Amino acid sequence: MSSPPHVPQPRRHVLRSKAPLAADGVALLDWLTRRFGYFDTDGWRTQIEAGRVEIGDRPASSATVVHTGDSIAYFPAEARDAAAEVAILHADADLVVVDKPPFLVVQHTGAFVQYTFVHGLADRFPPAPPRQQLEPAHRLDRETSGVLVLARSERAARGVQQQFEAGTVGKQYVAWVHGVVGADSLRVDAAIGNAKGSAIAARRAVVAAATRGARHAVTEFTVEQRLPRHTLLRAVPRTGRTHQIRVHLEHLGHPVVGDKLYGHPDAHFLAYQTHLKQDGDPRWPGHAEVPRQLLHAAVLQCAHPGTGEPLEFRAPLPADMALDGKPSPTA
Description:
This protein is an alpha+beta fold. Helices cover 18% and strands 25% of the residues. The longest helix is centred in the middle third of the chain and has 13 residues, at 154-166. The termini are far apart.
């Protein structure tokens, strides 16, 4: 089979891998499918035929044979003008603070690189040398919207990260949850660790504090609005554990509306992963609820890494979490 016509690819947006000894003599399509679960066989064939896979800086075909040490590059297609969708809350020589929409990812690796906005944002707010890219100072899940801080300079990346590690950054989230929360306010002080027996490596759960790998976690919740079958909560995490708010809400019996992992058995999320690996829309039309988890990073407070000035950033409640229930949970 002849190689497809060479399509110049944007060199900034590339994932590279070096073929190991075990890959020697294996067809490229087979190796990609086994090694990288972003796509199934048909999905990787489509990527190759689109000219997005190269070996040794030359376009490859599905039948190309891999040899040990080959440099294999994948150039994912990016969402059109993704950065244009992002509202800027603050920008100076050290920081860019944005109101991240749902479904745009912060990290530009893996299957979701096409939904990142970081590259386009860097075109508008170039990082200060020697930085090559804007550095997210913290993480927001792909489906979570709201305040996100990115560093343009070395001192900003170091300074804001130190504040997160010290626990001096103030954060408030807003979430629609299932069920009617009775108490006006409550505090969850419950350790979080890996979910025992789950087939999903990323799943966390409330565990006994003495459990190996358990980490202390505290979240405070306040009721903002009640509907007959749902509640709008404000969440203040006092610690910063993976999936902390979502795990604590599942533990309370009030999982976040639209959450595809928490509040469901493993099979539900595994079906979603299969959908994504087939290059499906992350909004997952087959999902029975709203298209995404209704969790929003509403407020972030920190000190400016250069001046020490106290800063507060607020992102308004997005349209899909509107208080009138359209298209947030209906009564």
